[in-house]
Design goal:
The complex is a heterodimer of chains A (about 375) and B (about 325).
Chain A (H helix, E strand, L loop, with lengths): L1 H16 L1 H21 L7 E7 L4 H12 L3 E6 L3 H9 L5 E5 L3 H7 L5 E4 L4 H25 L20 H32 L1 H6 L5 H31 L7 H25 L3 H18 L12 H8 L2 H15 L5 H26 L1
Parallel strand pairs in A: 1-2, 1-3
Antiparallel strand pairs in A: 3-4
Helix pairs in contact in A: 1-9, 2-7, 2-9, 3-6, 7-9, 7-10, 7-11, 7-13, 9-10, 10-11, 10-13, 10-14, 13-14
Chain B lengths: L1 H7 L3 E10 L2 E11 L4 E5 L6 H8 L7 E6 L2 E2 L4 H6 L1 E4 L11 H11 L4 H15 L14 H13 L5 E5 L7 H16 L3 E6 L2 H4 L4 E6 L2 E6 L1 H6 L4 E6 L3 H10 L6 E5 L2 E6 L2 H10 L6 E5 L3 H10 L9
Parallel strand pairs in B: 3-8, 3-9, 6-7, 7-8
Antiparallel strand pairs in B: 1-2, 1-4, 4-5, 9-10, 11-13, 11-14, 12-13
Helix pairs in contact in B: 4-6
The chains are: A alpha/beta (about 375), B alpha/beta (about 325).
C-alpha cells in the first residue's frame, strides 16, 4: 500500500510539474463543453430566402408575412426576375427562394394555387432544413385558409418532444463529452505516462526495487483516475449551470457507470502502452483507438441509426456507444435499468483489463 | 542458505550463465564471483554482454542457463528478496528530471520500504556523503552529469544494500567527477559492500580489485589489474609527440613483420617482440618528431591483444 501511494504521489508531482499538460487536462474539457454546447446547435435560424412575388396581391403578402413571422426565415431580398435567383445562390446571398406565380390570388380563390420553392443544395443539411421550414409555413397558411372558409383540416399532426422539449443540443452533447473526456484523460494520458517511463529507462530502475508490477500500475494509474473524475465533474457541472442540462436520475448511478467506463479506458491505455515501442506510437495509437471512434462512431454527434450496416456493428463494439446510452438515459430520462448496456460494458471491462494485465506482465519479466 | 555462501565468501556468484535474444547470444557461459568489500570490474566493449549479465544478477532478466546468486539467493527465483539487499544503477540516467533531489531520494526510499525515521537519517548521511546537500531542492534535470550520477548512486544506496551493481556509472561524466565517483565507490567497498561495476574506460579498470575482461559474451581474462596486464606476452614502445600523425602514417604504410601499432588518443603503442624490431621502429621514426620509450603493458594492451586472439580460450594467470 505504501508503495502504491509512493508511486501515486510521484505521478501526481509529474502532473503538477508539467504545467502545459495540466492546463490541457483541466481547460480542454471546459472548452469542449462551451464550444460544443454552443456550436452544435441543431436548429438553423435566420435562413436567407429570396422572394420573387409575381402576383403582388393581398393573398401573396399574407403568405410572405406568415413565412417571416416564424423567426427562422428572413426575407433577404425582393427579387425582380428568375435570373436573380441563380445569381443569389451562386454568390451565396440566398439559401432558398420562394416564387409566387402571377395570378396566385385568383388561383387561391378557385382552389388550386401553386407556389415554388427553390433550394441551394450545395449544403445538403441546410437545404433540407430550409425546405422543411418552407413546407411547414405553407401548411400553416393552408390551415388558416381552410379555417377562414369555415372548413377544418382533415387531420392535424402535433409533435411533442419528450426529455428535451426545446431540442437543446447541449443536453445531447454533454453526455457525449463526458465519454470523450474520460477517454482522453484515462486512456491517452495514462498510455503516454507509462510509455514515457518505459522510454526514459526509469521503469527499469523502479523494477529493481522490491515493488511489484501490479503496485507500479495501480499507483501510476490512480492520479489519472482522480483527474478523469475531476474533469468529468467539471463537464457535468458546466453543462448543468451554463446550458441547463438536467440531471433526472441518480448522481450515484452516474458515478458508478463513469467508474466502469474509467476502468475500460484505463485498460485500453495500459494495453496501448504495453504494445507501443515508443511515445509517438503510443500517442497515435491512443488517438486512433480511443478518441476518434468515441467522437465519430459512438453516437456522440452522428446518429448510429443513419450509418451503413457494417459500421453499425463496429459502433456496437465500442464501449462509448453503450456508455452514451446509459449517460443520456440517466441524465435526461432518469432511467435506472440498462440490462444490455451494463452487460456489454462489464464484459468489455473484464476482457480489456485481463488483456492489459497479461500484456503488461509479459513486458516486465 | 547463507552458510554455504559464507564458506565460499562471495556476495555475488554467477555460474555458467547463458542468455540469448532471439538466436543472438549475448552471454555464453560466464562465471563470476565478488566477495564483500571488493570492487569487481566488468570490462569490455559495447555488446560484450556486460549489461545482460548485470540485469540477470539483479533479477530483471531470466538466464537461459546457469544461475546468478546474490547473498546466496537465486536472482531468477527470488528477485524481490534479492532486490531488497541489492542496489542497481542502470546505464542511462534513470531518475525523474522533473522531481527534486530530495523527492527522487524520498521516492526510492518509499519503494524500498525504508521506514520514515530511518529514511531521514539515511538521507542526511547520503547527502553528506555525496556532497549533494546544497542541491536538495534542485530538480534532478538541472544537475550536472557528475551530480546526476551521484544522485542516482544515492538512490540505489537509500535502503542500505549489501551488494551494488553499477552499469557504466561514469560514462559521459567529466574526469574530475569520475575520480570523485570512484573515491566514493572505494569508500563503499571499505564499508564491506560488494560492488560489480562495468566500464568501457581502461583507466578505471585499474581502480578495481579485480577485473573480468568480457568479449562476445565470454570472459577472456580475469584477475587483479596487474595480473591481467601481465598476461600481455610482448614488449611495448610508447610513441608520443607532435609528429604523431606522421609517425602513424609511416608505421602503417611500411609495416614491419610481427609489429603492431595501436593508437590511444595522444600516443601510439608499438607492439613488438625483440630489440631488433625496436631498433627498426626507432630508425623509421627518427625524423618524425616523436619520442619513443619502452613502457610496461597496461590492461588496455592486454585486452586489445586478447581480443585479437582466437575466441574461446580464457587467459587465467
Amino acid at each position: 500500500m505504501n508503495r502504491i501511494l509512493a508511486m501515486a504521489g510521484k505521478e501526481f508531482l509529474h502532473i503538477l510539474r508539467d504545467r502545459r499538460s495540466l492546463a490541457v487536462a483541466l481547460l480542454m474539457p471546459l472548452t469542449m463543453v462551451l464550444l460544443y454546447g454552443a456550436v452544435i446547435d441543431m436548429e438553423l435560424r435566420d435562413l436567407r430566402v429570396g422572394v420573387l412575388d409575381l402576383d403582388g396581391g393581398d393573398r401573396s403578402r399574407e403568405l410572405l408575412r406568415a413565412m417571416t413571422s416564424s423567426g427562422f426565415i428572413v426575407e433577404a431580398e425582393r427579387l425582380d426576375g428568375r435570373e436573380a435567383i441563380e445569381a443569389g445562390f451562386r454568390q451565396g446571398r440566398l439559401q432558398a427562394a420562394l416564387v409566387v406565380p402571377r395570378g396566385y390570388g385568383e388561383d387561391l380563390a378557385r382552389g388550386g394555387a401553386r407556389v415554388q420553392v427553390l433550394v441551394d443544395g450545395a449544403d445538403a443539411s441546410t437545404a433540407a432544413t430550409v425546405a422543411n421550414y418552407l413546407q411547414a409555413v405553407v401548411a400553416l397558411v393552408n390551415r388558416d385558409l381552410l379555417r377562414e372558409a369555415g372548413l377544418a383540416a382533415p387531420f392535424d399532426v402535433r409533435t411533442r418532444v419528450w426529455f428535451n422539449p426545446e431540442l437543446v443540443s447541449a443536453r445531447f452533447v454533454v453526455p457525449g463529452l463526458v465519454a470523450l473526456v474520460l477517454m482522453m484523460i484515462c486512456a491517452l494520458l495514462t498510455s503516454i505516462a507509462i510509455t514515457r517511463e518505459k522510454e526514459a529507462g526509469t521503469l527499469e530502475q523502479i523494477l529493481t526495487t522490491p515493488v511489484t508490477p501490479a503496485q507500479v500500475i495501480v499507483g501510476k494509474v490512480l492520479p489519472y483516475v482522480a483527474l478523469g473524475a475531476l474533469d468529468c465533474a467539471m463537464v457535468l457541472l458546466a453543462g448543468k449551470w451554463v446550458f441547463g442540462v438536467p440531471m433526472a436520475g441518480s448522481w450515484w448511478l452516474l458515478a458508478a457507470y463513469c467508474l466502469l467506463f474509467i476502468v475500460i479506458a484505463l485498460s485500453l491505455g495500459l494495453l496501448i502502452s504495453a504494445r507501443s515501442p515508443s511515445l509517438r506510437v503510443a500517442m497515435m495509437a491512443a488517438l486512433m483507438v480511443t478518441m476518434l471512434p468515441t467522437m465519430i462512431l459512438s453516437g456522440f454527434v452522428f446518429p448510429i441509426a443513419s450509418m451503413p450496416g457494417p459500421l453499425q456493428v463496429v459502433c456496437r463494439l465500442l464501449p462509448a456507444t453503450h456508455f452514451l446510452v446509459v449517460l443520456r438515459g440517466i441524465m435526461l430520462k432518469g432511467q435506472a435499468w440498462f440490462p444490455v448496456q451494463t452487460a456489454a460494458l462489464v464484459v468489455m471491462a473484464a476482457v480489456l483489463l485481463t488483456l492489459a494485465i497479461r500484456s503488461f506482465r509479459l513486458r516486465l519479466e | 542458505m547463507n552458510a554455504a555462501d559464507g564458506m565460499s565468501g562471495a556476495a555475488i556468484r554467477v555460474e555458467g550463465l547463458r542468455k540469448s535474444y532471439g538466436g543472438r547470444a549475448a552471454v555464453r557461459g560466464l562465471d563470476l564471483a565478488v566477495a564483500p568489500g571488493r570492487i569487481c570490474g566488468l570490462i569490455g566493449p559495447d555488446g560484450a554482454g556486460k549489461t545482460t549479465t548485470m540485469r540477470i544478477v539483479c533479477g530483471l532478466l531470466r538466464p537461459d542457463a546457469g544461475v546468478a546468486r546474490v547473498l546466496g539467493r537465486d536472482s531468477a527465483r527470488e528477485p524481490r528478496a534479492v532486490r531488497e539487499r541489492l542496489g542497481y544503477m542502470p546505464q542511462r540516467f534513470s531518475l525523474y528530471p522533473d522531481l527534486t533531489v530530495a523527492e527522487n531520494l524520498r521516492f526510492f526510499a518509499d519503494l524500498f520500504g525504508v521506514p520514515a525515521s530511518e529514511r531521514v537519517r539515511r538521507e542526511a548521511e547520503l547527502m553528506e556523503f555525496s556532497r549533494l546537500g546544497p542541491f536538495r531542492q534542485r530538480r534532478a534535470g538541472q544537475l550536472s552529469g557528475g551530480m546526476k550520477q551521484k544522485l542516482a548512486l544515492s538512490c540505489t544506496l537509500i535502503h542500505t544494500p549489501e551488494v551494488l551493481v553499477l552499469d557504466e556509472p561514469t560514462t559521459g561524466v567529466d574526469p574530475v567527477s569520475r575520480r570523485e565517483f570512484w573515491r566514493i565507490l572505494r569508500e563503499l567497498a571499505g564499508r564491506g559492500l560488494a560492488l560489480l561495476v562495468s566500464t568501457p574506460y581502461m583507466d578505471e579498470a585499474g581502480l578495481c580489485d579485480e577485473v573480468v575482461l568480457m568479449h562476445e559474451g565470454r570472459a577472456i581474462a580475469r584477475g587483479t589489474p596487474d595480473e591481467v596486464a601481465a598476461t600481455f606476452p610482448r614488449r611495448l614502445l610508447e610513441v608520443r609527440g607532435a609528429g604523431l600523425p606522421a609517425a602513424l602514417t609511416i608505421l602503417t604504410t611500411s609495416p614491419l613483420p610481427g609489429v603492431k601499432v595501436h593508437r590511444y588518443g595522444d600516443r601510439l603503442h608499438v607492439v613488438h617482440d625483440d630489440a631488433a624490431q625496436a631498433d627498426e621502429v626507432a630508425r623509421l621514426l627518427a625524423n618524425a618528431g616523436v619520442e619513443l620509450h619502452p613502457v610496461a603493458p597496461g590492461i588496455e594492451d592486454a585486452f586489445v591483444e586478447l581480443m585479437a586472439a582466437p575466441a574461446g580460450g580464457e587467459a587465467t594467470p
